Amino acid sequence: MIPLQTPVSPSDPADRDLLRLADHCVKCGLCLPHCPTYAQTRHEADSPRGRIALIQGWVTGELEMSNTLARHLDGCLTCRACEQACPSLVAVGRLMDGVKARRVARLPVWRRALRRRWLSVLSDARLTALLGRLAGRYRVSGLAGWMERIGLARRRWLVPYHRLATAMGAAARPMVADDRPAADLDLFVGCMGSSAQGAAIAATLRVCERLGLRVRIPSGSACCGALMRHNGYADEADRLRAGCVQRHAGRTLVGLASACIAELREDSALRETLEVCDFLDRAVWPASLKLRPLPRRVLVHEPCTHRHLPGGNAAVYRLLARVPELEVIPLPGNDTCCGAAGTYLLQQPAMAAALLRDKLASLADLKPDILVTTNPGCALHLAAGIREAGLTVAVCHPVELIL
Fold it and tell me: Does the pLDDT of residue 49 top 80, yes or no?
């Protein structure tokens, strides 16, 4: 039986804030059909309603933080599909981020520091660029194939890192900063720019040049803070986002990665940050600019973070509609997370792989030439799955198909 009320009030103000958020849930269950993890396990504790009940029990002291409880809470993708169906408007994403922050705060100092270091590597543009170059060598040197042949790549702890490295090795491209003071827009490339979206950056620069737009890419690209926030390090996330405010406030800011844009827009100074397809769709296109025909079938993957942005993915479809002879189709099941979810694909590889299978089945059935997505994590996750499934589908950012 799921408790409908929590009679014990916590003494810690942060816990009281979590309880106030959780108590908005009326346990109606309308969220259940929309939760990807519940659809996989059919376990109440893997549903939004169930997780909120567990949080209420933990915050009020009725439940201890056991391995089982942690497993159910950590299984949340924070995709926020449940929020769209919730009549009580429960802020599940904010609640889950808050719970992670409280759990991190109660970790031993050494574990907290170790996790922060791991996340710092993933959110440092210089280090991810280096990882991208190393991943490229891992892929082309034959080491990745050798690891697969001898079975090491199938070791449980190594599987997600091997998958990510092979996909990143194919996607990594060098990126050149352009700190020009006078520009029409700042291009936010974040911490994964050269390691996962180098081709998209180059394509954006080409299109903007044809549209007569000057682009500024500040040197020393910074992380937006999303990875830190969704892993429980809210203070570090706030610090990183404040750096972005200092760097870009008062300028037209355009981003390539939907998750970064969602994080940046949470700050009032960056509330007008635009996704690149939305920005290009709004731009003035000269009548003389003719796009080359591209007779290909394209499926559009809609990342969870992009579906929650104002206007959703509509601009992606409008931008692609400018390309002559391009057949554009939404990927079936776009309302369900692909399983990437930031660092989730590394932390919960079994569930991430299970959620990916439905996407791969649709690709095998519809046989597109190209799959486009605006999230680099989703792109790497999907590309790795496509490779393993033996499908011949290219994965890229929508802007790469323009011009």
Answer: yes
**Vertex 340, ends 85 and 95: CA angle to 5°?**
45
Q: Give the C-alpha separation, 191 to 123, whole Å.
A: 5
**Domain count along the chain:** 2
Give the Å distances, CA to CA, from 268 to 111, 242, 265.
Answer: 33, 11, 7
| Residue 101 identity | A
**Among all chains, which residue has been given the structure tokens 């924070």?**
78
Give residue-wise pLDDT tens across range 128-182: 878 778 877 877 788 878 887 887 777 777 777 787 777 777 776 776 667 777 7
Determine the Cα–Cα distance for residues 270 and 253; give it in Å rounded to an integer: 8
* DSSP for 212-270, written as a single string: T--EEB-SS----SHHHHTTT-HHHHHHHHHHHHHHHTTS-EEES-HHHHHHHTTSGGG
Residue 173 domain flag: no
Tokens 């993708």 identify what position? 77
pTM comes to 0.91
- Per DSSP, 3 falls in state -
Task: Show the domain range for 94.
Answer: 13-106
**Of 106, 126, 146, which closes a domain?**
106
Domain CATH for 84: 1.10.1060.10
Cβ neighbors of 308 (< 8 A, separation 6 or more) are 80, 262
Q: Is residue 320 part of a domain?
A: yes
Whether residue 134 is contained in a domain is answered as no
CB-based burial, 124-139: b 16+ in 10 Å, e otherwise: bbeebbebbbebbebb
β-strand partners of 216: 186
Give the tens place of pLDDT for each residue, 225-284: 999 999 999 999 999 999 999 999 889 999 999 999 999 999 999 999 999 999 999 999
The answer as to whether 249 is a domain residue is: no
β-bridge partners, 396:
372
Of 89, 106, 123, which marks where a domain is finished?
106
Rounded Cα gap, residues 72 and 311, in angstroms: 32
